[in-house]
Amino acid sequence: MYYQPWCAYDNYNYNYCGWSCCGEYNYCITPYCCDSRNGNNSGGGGGGGTNPTGLPPNIVIGYWENWPSTPNLRLRNVSDKWDVVVVSFALANGSAAEFTPDPSLYANEQQFIDDVKFLQARGQKVIISLGGATDNTFTITNTAQRDSFANSLISIINRYGFDGLDIDIEHNAATGQDPMLVDGETSITSPTKPFNQYIINILRTVKAAMSSGFILSVTPEFPYVQGGAQTWGSYNTPGQGIYGGYLALLNGIRDIITYIAPQYYNNDLEDYAALGIDNRYDADMLVRMTKALIDGFHVKDHGFFQGFPPSRVVFTVLQKQAGRNCSFLASVPGGQDCGAMPVSTYETALATLLAEYPDFRGIGTWSINIPLREGGADDFADKIHADVIDPLARGAAPEISSSEEYQTRHAARTAQAPAAAKLVDDFPQTYTARHAKLKYNVYARKVGYWRRRENSSLYLAPQSGILYPKGD
């Protein structure tokens, strides 16, 4: 039988732990957690499980367009419900990255810097995304160019005060260049393709130059990741194409990545039967694609791609936009609008994932600007928070002021779930008020997330902190 022990967070430190946590019974009973699958802390991006990024447990991410729009939208005017605002884009120009705030939005550079600080003062994170679908030309073929590119990114981040870096390297619609194709790559664990080796080194250099709270995210189109489950590269020319193109990069930065947030739109779905996905855009597709990133999956002829803890997984979706039509998806249910679905569908998928993985990181969207162009409001993040994240938020466990109160509560729960409670009984018997409260949280939050993948007999009733029989 295969078990997955998921650990949530306690009231003192945001401890994100997946697969295995430090402690005899694989629960977070110390302030530090580890990921036994790869020997790395599963908090993502450095730090001993103490949430150095300052991100909430569950987040909503929005891409902001750094170009003229109708109406124009400055950073300081986005909703305060966006937990992370991703500035789009820094662009590759040979062996350097470049970024300039759009002059139609900002009269000078300082205005943009002030807006970044304004959002940060509200508790929001602002990160810069490298890539996008146009205007990128990478020339990184030797170590000098590699180092030049890394230094240019560090300079941009420091100059504008960004909290992190997002990677969204795609096919360049203008030039046809796509450095993330599998072409020339023979391994997902020990990269042989020079560009993969260089970009991994670049990202590790950037991360090492920043504080422990630096955010590093990767937002590929989904064929570059889960597409590898069906074929390597493409069906017509195996070893050449996009399917699985990001896997070597992801493995190369797995210990420093804060979250991966694949884009679930703009692409066909006929090639994902290996993941149990029907050829349609709906909530089930979003859930199954995302669970594949958590569980891991077999890559066609290239071994097994290890999953990420739920706390390091996000799914990115598209907001509906009039006139945006993907004719090649016309026969795909839900594909008429390039995979854009109603917000209610996204909420269903997110709620489903949070019910199974309470520390699932969240949802992202392209873009913050779209609803405004459609005559609507910048309210995507507001809806997600109000309808899903806030109601499902794991509130503080009841205060326990004494060992006697703990014993009373614990005895009542032991009668309902003796097998699970036995694990808590084996924890060190320290009964200061703080430790009693922590121990209660371990029981209410952590034990309940021990999930058996087949025929599970116990589950944690949301927000109750009580284990009940699952039933048939």
Instruction: Please report the total strand number as a whole number.
Output: 16
Radius of gyration: 23 Å
The third-level CATH topology of the largest domain is TIM Barrel
Derived from helix and strand composition plus strand pairing, the structural class reads alpha/beta
Shape: globular
| Overall mean confidence score, pLDDT | 79
CATH architecture label of the largest domain: Alpha-Beta Barrel
Q: Could you say how many structural domains there are in total?
A: 2
Which characteristics define this entry?
ten-stranded mixed β-sheet; disordered N terminus; 2 domains; single chain; 11 helices; 28% helix; disordered C terminus; 472 residues; two-stranded antiparallel ribbon; alpha/beta; TIM Barrel
